[in-house]
Specification:
Layout lengths: L7 H5 L36 H10 L4 E3 L14 H10 L4 H4 L8 H4 L21 E4 L3 H14 L3 E4 L15 E4 L6 E7 L4 E8 L4 H10 L2 E2 L10 H8 L6 H4 L6 E7 L5 E4 L5 H7 L9 E8 L1 E2 L3 E8 L6 H21 L3 E7 L2 E10 L3 H7 L1 H9 L4 E8 L2 H9 L11 E9 H6 L1 H14 L3 E2 L2 E2 L19 E10 L6 H20 L17 H6 L3 H11 L16 E3 L5 E3 L1
Parallel strand pairs: 2-4, 3-4
Antiparallel strand pairs: 1-2, 5-6, 6-10, 7-11, 8-9, 8-10, 12-14, 12-15, 13-14, 13-18, 16-19, 17-19, 18-19, 20-21
The structure holds flavin-adenine dinucleotide and 2-acetamido-2-deoxy-beta-D-glucopyranose (11 copies).
One 2-acetamido-2-deoxy-beta-D-glucopyranose binds next to helix 2 and strand 1.
Protein name: FAD-binding domain-containing protein
GO molecular function: FAD binding; oxidoreductase activity
Pfam families: BBE (PF08031), FAD_binding_4 (PF01565)
Amino acid sequence: MNTKIIRLSTLLTLVSAIIFSKADASGLKAHPGSPSCRFLPGDKLWPSTHEWQQLNTSISGRLISTVPLGSVCHDPTFDAETCAALAQSWTFPQAHFVHPSSFMSAYHQNASCNPYTPKASPCLLGNTVPYVINVTSAEDVIAGLKFAQEKNVRLVIKNTGHDYLGKSTGKGAVSLWTHNLKSIEFLNYTSAAYTGPAMKIGAGVQAFEAYEAAAAKGLKVVGGECITVGLAGGFTQGGGHSLLSSKHGLGADQALEWEVVTANGTLVTASPTNNSDLYWALSGGGGGSYGVVLSLTTKAYPDGIVGGASIATQFSSVDDDTLWDLVSFFQSTALPGIVDAGAHVQWALLGPIFVITEVTIPDATESDIRGALKQLTGYLSERNISFQLNVTSLPNYLVHMERYLGPFPYGQYPVEQLQGGIMVSRETVKKNSTELTAVLRNIVTKTGFYLAPYSLNVSRPPGSPNAVLPAWRDALTYYTVIQNWNFTVPFSEMDEQERLLTEEIMPPLQEFASGAYMNEADFKNPKWREEFYGENFEKLKEIKKKWDPQDLFYATTAVGSDAWKVAADGRLCRV
Ligand SMILES: Cc1cc2nc3c(=O)[nH]c(=O)nc-3n(C[C@H](O)[C@H](O)[C@H](O)COP(=O)(O)OP(=O)(O)OC[C@H]3O[C@@H](n4cnc5c(N)ncnc54)[C@H](O)[C@@H]3O)c2cc1C
Ligand SMILES: *[C@@H]1O[C@H](CO)[C@@H](O)[C@H](O)[C@H]1NC(C)=O
Ligand SMILES: *[C@@H]1O[C@H](CO)[C@@H](O)[C@H](O)[C@H]1NC(C)=O
Ligand SMILES: *[C@@H]1O[C@H](CO)[C@@H](O)[C@H](O)[C@H]1NC(C)=O
Ligand SMILES: *[C@@H]1O[C@H](CO)[C@@H](O)[C@H](O)[C@H]1NC(C)=O
Ligand SMILES: *[C@@H]1O[C@H](CO)[C@@H](O)[C@H](O)[C@H]1NC(C)=O
Ligand SMILES: *[C@@H]1O[C@H](CO)[C@@H](O)[C@H](O)[C@H]1NC(C)=O
Ligand SMILES: *[C@@H]1O[C@H](CO)[C@@H](O)[C@H](O)[C@H]1NC(C)=O
Ligand SMILES: *[C@@H]1O[C@H](CO)[C@@H](O)[C@H](O)[C@H]1NC(C)=O
Ligand SMILES: *[C@@H]1O[C@H](CO)[C@@H](O)[C@H](O)[C@H]1NC(C)=O
Ligand SMILES: *[C@@H]1O[C@H](CO)[C@@H](O)[C@H](O)[C@H]1NC(C)=O
Ligand SMILES: *[C@@H]1O[C@H](CO)[C@@H](O)[C@H](O)[C@H]1NC(C)=O
């Protein structure tokens, strides 16, 4: 079984961009020195070196004065060899998540200090945080919260820095870096809502670590496709879709309890019965907004065989209309049955290519998989569309992940991209497949963007109520709209592509949307309140007001973020 499969990641790196130019710069006026705005380095009232030192002493020397990751590529700290290696690894997560201040959203990086701009151009902090607390305990967090509040310094929480919307960074901020909270403990959990195996993980545990630890105990847990994403951070707090989700639900549906430090510096446990409003908000209501999570206790499931498949079609022989008829048939007619068989399906549309990079059905044999795909393969055969189908049934979830999304530990997921996305309900896909397919066709053939949709059935209500966007429950497919970042063109050209995404590409797609996944969406989406949070928005705002009355926690498009505005110079100011 040494077959090579087509990986989504391989496809994603194939694609290049259509480029335009024109810069955009707008924003509100900053009020330096006014308490209605957070201070920035250089302000008269920015904390003194002595004050930072006092903070450092109070947390046993865990304060880091940051050096941007890209500084090795710029004078006067240029180092040819290190820089060349960094230029190779920059588009992969592992370059960034091990670093205290680095993050992955290329738009928010703003080319202020990357390996691709001239050596002679200065390395600027830009949107990178100047100070990081390397968190090991609740005390570290409490000291950071207190300092930020008293000194009027912006605060951010960073775990891995994966966030596409730039939520894990902020200009002039002190960052609570949770990456090193790596504890893992297994429990037989008992509560009114759930009795069974569970895993209690520190906030810094990444999916690959959780999968490996669980497999060693004969268990599996619900985590993301990109195996370096954190489990307890943005993933579970934002909803969290997984290869296991059609069988076991979303990440947030697995949450049993959270240990969290709240804005006023109190360590609390949030569960369905204790601080239940906070539990509800943290389980799906978005990362970086209600408190600083130290640990998550999540359900675990007995491990076992996992069925899988990938399909590639050979289109040299068919015309475009045949291809798009197939797409329409696939999404409206074949997919509902496939996901109802317990499958998660990752597929892609890139120019003239339609490919299914991964089908996952827990507990399925090869014959179960072939059965689930029969309607699709029958369609292809009837129309003489040649295709290649690879089917697997591997001994456990870890081996399946390794095969489709490995290699462990880090996988090969490129991350630097422009990103938009919408959720479409089963009913709409069925009713409007022709119109929807026409919009998809237009995107992949006429813009520099491509589509990497995934399909699932997470209709089953969670064991305890949570703040997962209700639209997930009848969603069939999530359509992500992507353009790989091109670091060789001027930033202004990528900014124009971002404008194109928000203003021209997304609106026709949004006609079909029942919502959008807050973690995989356009950060400039003007409809973020209704699309990311839906009917939960007002309740989340009330919970936010109770637990964070001063709006200490800010992140782009997070609940409560509309209390603030980022000015043209990057300064955070109260609205
Ligand atoms: C390549 C790639 C693949 C992905 N695949 C999937 C996938 O398969 N399924 C899926 O659901 N999502 C996926 N995502 C999206 C992912 O879930 C989000 O980017 C998520 O926000 C990452 O969480 P993090 O904690 O690892 O990252 P970070 O960027 O560090 O944090 C994300 C957000 O959570 C907040 N946060 C982090 N830690 C804490 C904490 N301890 N307490 C409170 N707030 C915290 C941050 O402030 C920020 O707002 C993918 C993203 C990438 C880049
Ligand atoms: C199926 O396996 C073959 C043989 O390893 C490989 O060449 C091909 O790319 C695979 N196809 C898909 C769709 O994964
Ligand atoms: C980036 O853009 C340049 C100029 O248009 C182009 O030559 C190059 O192929 C692009 N690179 C990628 C990775 O798309
Ligand atoms: C904090 O203290 C530690 C240990 O004394 C030191 O290594 C570190 O540089 C200090 N951080 C700052 C920002 O001064
Ligand atoms: C990017 O940096 C420039 C200055 O080099 C600044 O004017 C602009 O506002 C920044 N944009 C973002 C999105 O941070
Ligand atoms: C952060 O703290 C961890 C745990 O003490 C330590 O292993 C690591 O070296 C620290 N990282 C940095 C960059 O200081
Ligand atoms: C949980 O219970 C099972 C079955 O009794 C037992 O084998 C296992 O060791 C227990 N796990 C823990 C972490 O206590
Ligand atoms: C509820 O939370 C409090 C602290 O907020 C804690 O002391 C208590 O043990 C928790 N109770 C349960 C059942 O988790
Ligand atoms: C498919 O190919 C077979 C045999 O070559 C042929 O008889 C049949 O008409 C073709 N069907 C279509 C839909 O083209
Ligand atoms: C979806 O289909 C309905 C019924 O046919 C139609 O009225 C509606 O305009 C379609 N919506 C879109 C966005 O095309
Ligand atoms: C989705 O899966 C659930 C089981 O989790 C099943 O009851 C339901 O019929 C499936 N289909 C739809 C449309 O929800
Ligand atoms: C912190 O905030 C919570 C929620 O408003 C409140 O119940 C608690 O009493 C506060 N604790 C302190 C020490 O102020």
